[in-house]
Design goal:
Layout (H helix, E strand, L loop, with lengths): L3 E5 L9 H15 L3 E7 L2 H5 L7 E4 L4 H11 L4 E5 L6 H5 L5 E5 L11 E4 L18 E4 L26 E5 L8 H8 L9 E6 L17 E5 L2 H5 L3 E5 L2 H8 L4 E5 L2 H14 L3 E5 L5 H13 L1 H14 L4 H10 L2
Parallel strand pairs: 1-2, 1-4, 2-3, 4-5, 5-6, 6-7, 8-9, 8-11, 9-10, 11-12, 12-13
Helix pairs in contact: 1-11
């Protein structure tokens, strides 16, 4: 009999789509391993427009989503619950799932220590983050080796940079909905006239909240286009609002200028840059000057050895085998 695994993955509107795409990739691999996967999620416009989903999916109400999920999990006799994203639970609710394996993936909520398995694919959290965990209750796996990515990443070419590599295209990516409208902030900071031979490609997420602010009369070397992972990977350099996509393109060896759109991911970006020397960290978007962002662009344009160094180090950090490792963890439960 197949083990039934319920995937709690909210996505769309103000929640990033990366949670869905990486979980979907993992679900496909688990299906090949013989698991029966069902998705459960809050209502959003993203799920309404999703086509050809290979798995059943259940929609929860906004007001009582966690209780509905727990009830469904128990009634349908699921073997395990896999939660991807920052979703908070009450301890009494998790206790109702006794006998069901509870796996949290990058759930940074205050309830993180309630899980049977906690997987954290990042390195910037310190000891205080783990202080409430009981290691007799929870298995903890932390490290960049546990990153899971969008399946489309496998269709992208890894960067093999040489000293005579030309930079002709710079991509700009922000979080899907981009609630702080970082994309337009970056647009306002870059001196496009300074780089007449470089094309700047701004990639607009499907649930971007500020389409009305996209300039209608932008410079000739600027384009606003739909977010497409394969097309983004064809750029020579990225300016990225720090998040899952930053790690995805680092795994391809993409040279990246990173910045934060909130204090927490600004810290994560800075920590990763200092710890690995595999990307440039600019700072928090509200504090970044035009001079700083244009100087960073010039630095990478002028120093091909630095770009090659970033590319090689990034590829060594992220080997795209996170799904294999997570399946191994799940199989051992």
């Amino acid at each position: 009999m197949k083990k039934k695994l319920l995937f709690r993955v909210d996505a769309g509107d103000r929640v990033g789509l990366g949670h869905y795409y990486r979980s979907y990739n993992l679900a496909l691999a688990l299906k090949r391993e013989g698991y029966l996967v069902v998705f459960i999620h809050k209502l959003s416009s993203f799920w309404a427009h999703l086509k050809l989903l290979e798995f059943d999916h259940i929609t929860l109400s906004d007001s009582d989503s966690n209780n509905e999920m727990i009830l469904y999990c128990k009634q349908e006799n699921f073997w395990g619950l896999y939660v991807d994203g920052i979703i908070d639970f009450q301890e009494k609710d998790i206790n109702l799932l006794k006998g069901i394996q509870v796996i949290f993936y990058q759930n940074l909520s205050n309830s993180r220590h309630f899980a049977d398995v906690f997987i954290l694919p990042s390195i910037h959290q310190n000891a205080s983050f783990f202080k409430n965990f009981d290691k007799k209750r929870t298995q903890i796996y932390q490290g960049l080796e546990y990153f899971t990515f969008n399946a489309k990443l496998n269709q992208c070419n890894s960067k093999e940079l040489t000293i005579d590599h030309e930079i002709n295209n710079i991509g700009i990516i922000c979080s899907g909905s981009d609630p702080k409208n970082v994309m337009i902030s970056i647009y306002d900071l870059i001196d496009f006239e300074r780089w007449p031979n470089i094309f700047f490609n701004f990639y607009v997420g499907v649930n971007y909240l500020f389409e009305a602010t996209i300039p209608q009369d932008s410079p000739i070397n600027v384009k606003f286009v739909s977010y497409d992972l394969i097309k983004i990977a064809s750029n020579d350099l990225l300016i990225s609002s720090f998040g899952l996509s930053t790690y995805e393109f680092m795994s391809l060896g993409m040279p990246i200028i990173s910045l934060g759109h909130q204090k927490t991911n600004t810290f994560a970006s800075e920590y990763l840059a200092k710890k690995t020397d595999a990307l440039i960290h600019l700072g928090f978007i509200d504090d970044i000057s035009s001079e700083a962002i244009n100087h960073s662009i010039k630095t990478l344009l002028d120093d091909k050895k630095l770009i090659i160094n970033f590319s090689k180090k990034a590829k060594k950090l992220l080997d795209n085998k996170g799904i294999e490792r997570i399946i191994e963890i799940i199989n051992k439960l």
